[in-house]
Design a protein that fits this description.
The chain contains no helices and 25 strands. With 262 residues, the protein is mostly beta strands. It has a seven-stranded antiparallel β-sheet, with no helix packed on it. Strand 12 and strand 13 form a beta hairpin.
Amino acid sequence: MSLLVKSSKRGQTMVALEAGRLEYVGFSAYRLSLGETLPVSAGDKELCLVLLSGRVNIEGEGFNWQNLGDRQSVFEDKSPFAAYLPPGTDAQVTALSDVQIAVCAAPGSDGYEPRLIRPENCKRSVRGKGANTRYVCDILPDSEPAHSLLVVEVRTPSGHSSSYPPHKHDTDDLPHQSFLEETYYHQINPPQGFVFQRVYTDDRSIDQAMAVENSDLVVVPKGYHPVSVPYGYESYYLNVMAGPKRAWHFHNDPQHSWLLDL
């Protein structure tokens, strides 16, 4: 089965991971026009709504977050607004402009409250060096309260590599490595571009190389998952990770770990 989920150019749903495709991670992304609404129901999951672009209101029982949004593109040098919704939460998103919003899902539990994640709450960092430099924004890291969900976004400049050297997190062997499924939601600037992503395991039981276009989704059930960005285009991806333990510990591909010494 292909690990590439193609996006739709029409309709409210831009891309969605088929229910049951992964055990722990769920993902969908939507486009809304001014005045349109998106109902969201967590059910037995916990959710992180990530406002990719535009302005919205998010309302539900016990919360009413108004006029959220401070960027018109994921390629602006700004962190997003996001919202954490625990299991059993229903909400409605109302678009105050043209909007793109992602809904990230993972198994949840009791003991958490809905909360707004503001841009200033997101830790920003630079990872890598040279043509491996990329810009990271932690939206829901393991240092912030949640049951299993981890959410981070990454911008990668033209001609650079990302998620590189190749690494994996598919073995429950803490503190050395954690088991986390993952999805990559991609955007490209300009939007007619593409990036390349490979997903492979040591035994090559999975080995897929994909040309990924704007708003496509890549599914990473296990294995290494590097990204390469062609000259002339910028890459953005939103990562969603979840597994049996909420910790991010990865293992580099030993064939390529020498790159860390450069």
